[in-house]
Amino acid sequence: MQDYIGVYHSKKAKSMEFTAKQIAAYVGGEVVGDENAKVSTFAKIEEGMPGALSFLSNPKYAAYIYDTESSIVLVNNDFIAERPVKATLIRTANAYESLAKLMALYESVKPKKKGVSSMAFVASSATIGENVYIGPFVYIGDKVVVGDNTIIEANVSIGDGAAIGADCILYSGVTIYHGCKVGNRCILHAGCVVGADGFGFAPGADGYDKIPQIGIAVLEDDVELGANTCVDRATMGATIIKRGVKLDNMVQIAHNVVVDEHTVMSAQCGVAGSTKIGKWCMVGGQTGFNGHIQIGNGVKVGAHSAIPNNVKDGQAVFGYPAFEHTKFVRSSIVFKKLPDMYREMEMLKKEIESLKQQLAHFGKE
Questions:
Q1: pLDDT averaged over the chain?
Q2: What are the residue numbers of the active site?
Q3: Does some domain include residue 198?
Q4: Domain co-membership, 86 together with 169
Q5: Which domain holds residue 78?
Q6: Whether the Cβ atoms of residue 169 and residue 183 lie closer than 8 Å to each other
């Protein structure tokens, strides 16, 4: 399908159309139906429309495939139709992954903004790469470096000495503090703050004395931060979000934390200072991590959990405070039965007391 990108990569093009044959070639799939069927947009399978591409990977949505108006539907290789499907199907090893790949391609061929708004401020000592877009009311400080093809939307502030890599997108209201580093192909959604002071205070006789936060915050390549997520600068050294990490909206990363490669966190998680989180971890929303602990690689954490201590590689934990997942599930079952168990216990206590009285009576006889 890459052979067709040039055909559609034009500012004058009002729409981008792809045939089932082109899509199948790009994702390594097999066409079942009309290989010349065309699509120019995406739609959920239950909201399908002519000219749209949909996908089916969750069996819960299988009923929609028979009536969807979408022209093409991506399905897994093991999908078996129970009755005729009017849409053209493309069978792939993983329909969801194929959809993600196609959506990324679709985004890549859309025309991109370029140029510097007359209402932006760019320091004369800043270095701006090629094909960069800088929107209105952007502030770029002294000795800032911005890589090629990066898009900086309105009202972004980039402090002195900060560096932004190539092919990044900084949405409106993002703030990058002085000296902080953002790698290549990073996406920072509206309201992100990278490099605010860590929460460091020392109690004194008259209140709390602020501990200067002289380190920086570093985002490596291919990191994505959701809206209003904050990554604090280190007290000393660096707070590091490593390659491929994805953080959802309103996640708080404290000073000197390290989040290792390809870990993902859902919304409203909080990680206290100096905690180390391993590679390929998956963290449910509203989870809190204690400070100065070590989370292993491949750890899975259920939503609303509290993590007070170290967690070993590959464990799945859940609860408040969190413990091993299967034990938590068993405990949850017991917890639901506690009222009945309490009543039974009270009855047993009464029966035991009655038996004691009867035994005492027999003893006297």
A1: 91
A2: 255
A3: yes
A4: no
A5: 2-108
A6: no
